[in-house]
Design brief:
The protein is α/β, with parallel strands linked by helices. The protein has helices spanning about 20-45, 60-80, 135-140, and strands at about 20, 50, 55, 85, 100-110, 110-120, 130, 150-155, 155-165. It has two domains: about 5-85, Transcription elongation factor, GreA/GreB, N-terminal domain (Helix Hairpins, Orthogonal Bundle), CATH 1.10.287; about 90-165, Transcription elongation factor, GreA/GreB, C-terminal domain (Chitinase A, domain 3), CATH 3.10.50. The strands form three sheets. A five-stranded mixed sheet has the order 7-6-5-9-8. The protein has a two-stranded parallel sheet with strand order 1-4.
Amino acid sequence: MEDISHSLPKNIMPGQRFYLTKEGLGKIKKEHQRLRAMKLLKTKGEIPKFLHSDDLNPEYFHFQEDVSRLDAEIADLKYILENSEIIKPPPKEKQDTIQLGVKVLIEIDGQEDEFSIVGTLEANPSLGKISNESPVGRALFGHKVGDEICISSPIKTHYRIKRIRYS
């Protein structure tokens, strides 16, 4: 297996695991296939010449940059696919605690909010998906209905867990 750690974005660490829902894994697979097809189309045609007359050809350098960028993105997605794990509900006896894949209803200062805890690649707070590595996600992990948690980042907020549900 080739070493692609030199081309990974700074936020991806070698050996890192990526936790994804089935839908999230499907999206990454589709994007990986799309980029591979795009690279094939780009390199299948006529490649610009290095020199155009006596001058360096800017089209050649633009082409090389595009291919390099595609290669890096393809390598990143391949790495993620090889190091991903599908989020599965925990066994019945552990479904009373907050873990990856949970949909949790919490009360914050008298108002209710519901969100899912997912892996970092699928986190999108505006869609109600927070990362297991976010301050709130980390603080809620392992807690049960009725527990109260105080999180200080930058202001102190009190969370009360009202409901835990796994799909």
